[in-house]
Model the fold of this input.
Amino acid sequence: MKYHTQMEAARKGIITPEMKKVAAKESIDEETLRRKVAEGQVVIPANRNHQRLDPEGIGEGLRTKINVNLGVSHDCPDFEAEFEKVRKALDLKVEAIMDLSSCGKTREFRKRLLETSPAMIGTVPVYDAVGYFDRELTELTAADFLKILEIHAEDGVDFVTIHAGINRETVAHLKLNSRVTNIVSRGGSLLFAWMEATGNENPFFEHFDRVLEICREHDVTISLGDACRPGSIADATDSVQVQELIILGELTKRAWEQDVQVMIEGPGHMALNEIAANMTLQKKLCHGAPFYVLGPLVTDVAPGYDHITSAIGGAVAAMSGADFLCYVTPAEHLRLPTLDDMVEGIIATKIAAHAADIAKGLPGAKEWDLEMSKARAALDWEKMFQLALDPEKARRFREESLPEIRDTCTMCGKMCAVRNTNLTLRGEKVGV
Done:
C-alpha cells in the first residue's frame, strides 16, 4: 500500500520501517506508536530524500529530544568551523540539527550536512531566501518564498520552520498591544518587514495549501514557528503570543487534513511560574500536537549564562508537556556560538531533557540514574565515567586532582562518607 507521509501510513494502518525503529528505541509498542502518529500526537520527521537518517520520534510518551542550531552567516562564513560543530554534536548524540545558514553557499552547506548527518535536519527557508535569490527582501515575491521551501524539501530536509501564524490579523493585534521587545523571531521579523513594505499577506499563510502540497510530497514535517514568541519575561503569555497560537492551532488542523505532520514552536522568555500553564494552553489550542520550545529562558539578566536559564525553563517545560527542546548556548544574545559554547549548550539541554523524562516516568530514564548511584556507592570510578552524560569532562576533572586515597576524591579524602560507611558495614576500622 502506497503512502506519502508517516501520518498517512499510520492512518492506513501501516507500521513503517521508521515507526519500527522509533518504537524499538523508545521501548514502546509499535501499534501504540502508529496510533499516536495517526492522531498527530507524535511526529517522525523523515524526508525520504535524507538517506543517512536514523529516525527519531517526537511527542507524547517519548523521550524528550533536543535540537542544535548552527550554520554559516555573513560574519561567520567558515564551512569547516561549522562542520566541526556538526561532528561534535553528532558525537554527543543530539537528535536534531537545524541549519540556520543565511549567507553564501547555503545549499552546498545544507547538502553536505544531509549527506553527513544521521540526525534529523531542520531549516528555516525564509532565512535562505534573500541570499539564494540575491535580491533585497522587499524585491522577493510570494513565489520566491514558496520556491525556497520546495528546494529545501527536495534536498532532503526533515522539518522546516514556517512562520505562517504572523498574518495581517496578528500584525494588527501586535500594533494595538505594545510589547517591550516587539518581535524577536528572525524569521518572523523578516516576514513582518516584507508584509509592511509590500502591503501583502504573509505568503506562507496565504498559500498554506501550497506549503502543504510541498511538504506532503516529500514528507517534510512542518514546525509552525512562533514569530510572536516573547523575547522578554515582560511579554510572556500576552495577547499577541496567544493570538498567534490560536492561528497555529487552526493551521495544524488544515495540515492534518492533508496528512502532513506538524509540531508547534513555543517561547521564548517566560517566568518560571507561567511555564506549566503555557504548555497546557499550547496542547489545548493545538490539539495535542508536539511542542518544540526555545528554552524558555526564565530570566533576562544572565547573558553569558543563558544555557543555564534555558535549562531551568526547559526542564519545567518538558516535565509539563513540551516534547522537543532547542538548545541555548552561553553565547545567546551575544554572538555566534563557538564549539565550546555549543558543547555547553548541548549538555545543559540534555540535562534538562533527562530530568524531565525522570519526572514523567519514561521507561529507562530513572534506571540510568540508578546505575550511576550504584557505581558511586561502590566507588567504581570507571563505571561512573562510562555512565556520565559527559564522560570526557568527568574523567578530566578527576585526573586534574587525584587524591592520596585513590578510591576517594580530593573533596573529602579519608573523610569520604561513602568509603567510611562501606568500611563500617564490613566491620573494618575507619581511620581519618
The beta strands are 42-43, 58-59, 65-70, 96-99, 120-123, 159-162, 221-224, 262-266, 291-294, 324-326. The domain at 6-360 is CATH 3.20.20.540 (TIM Barrel).
